[in-house]
Structures are given as C-alpha cells and as structure tokens.
Write a structure and sequence with these properties.
The two termini are 26 Å apart. The strands form two sheets. The chain has a two-stranded antiparallel sheet. A two-stranded parallel ribbon has the order 3-4. The protein is globular. The longest helix is centred in the N-terminal third of the chain and has 14 residues. It is α+β, with helices and mostly antiparallel strands. 34% of the residues lie in helices and 9% in strands. It folds into two domains: 61 residues, no CATH class; 63 residues, no CATH class.
C-alpha cells in the first residue's frame, strides 16, 4: 500500500502494482497494491457503506480488518518504521481478532475462515 492524495488515478495504482509485481517475480507471489488515499472512491460500491477519505497511511492502517493485519512497515532510507496501532502481539502470536472500526462481521468471518485453512495454527477470536 501507499498513500498519495495528489494522484488518485487508478492507472497510477495499476502501474505501481505492475512495477512491484515485476520486482517480486516469483512463483506464488500475489501482488495487490492500493493507494489508500483513493479507497473511499470504491469502498461503498464494494462493501455497501460510505467511507470518508483517509488522511494518511496510518489512518488507513488503523481501520484494516484485524488487529494482526493492521501493520505497515516502510524503510525511510536509514531504518524501518513500523505503524502498528494495535501493537504486534497478535501478529507475532498468530491471533486473528476483529478490528471493528469499519469491517463487518461477514467480511471478518470470511477472511478468518480463509486464513485458518492456510494457517491451521491461527487462533481465531470470534466476532
């Protein structure tokens, strides 16, 4: 993910996704790049309710569906900077816990059911 409120074009997002996919060439690597500054443009169509535009990458990360997935890491040229509004304990411990900020029960349950088949050791906290 990235955040660029100055360029909300889907074409730019697609170009960046293609570049990342090209750099990460490999079997089984799936790339999904989103400009979090433009999520509000499609969110209602996909999930059925309005979303105000995010103000920053951290603002977006704080709304992601689970506490373990609400993590972003960037390299600032000298060090890694971590944005983890709910901490890292659930990620490290493989615990899926709903971040009910905007996710619905149905979306959460669909995600954790899929994840549990990929990672049998995942502990899923019910909605």
């Amino acid at each position: 993910m990235y955040f660029d409120a100055a360029d909300l074009r889907i074409e730019t997002e697609s170009e960046i996704e293609a570049e990342v996919a090209d750099r990460l060439r490999g079997d089984g690597i799936v790339v999904d790049v989103k400009n979090e500054a433009r999520v509000h443009l499609w969110y209602e169509r996909r999930f059925g309710h309005h979303l105000e535009p995010y103000r920053s990458a951290g603002d977006a990360i704080a709304t992601w569906p689970t506490t373990a997935s609400s993590v972003g890491v960037r390299y600032d040229g000298h060090t890694f900077v971590v944005c983890a509004p709910f901490g890292l304990a659930d990620l490290i411990s493989m615990v899926a816990r709903a971040n009910k900020t905007i996710v619905t029960r149905d979306v959460y349950e669909e995600k954790v059911a899929r994840w549990a088949t990929q990672w049998p050791q995942l502990t899923v906290i019910p909605w």
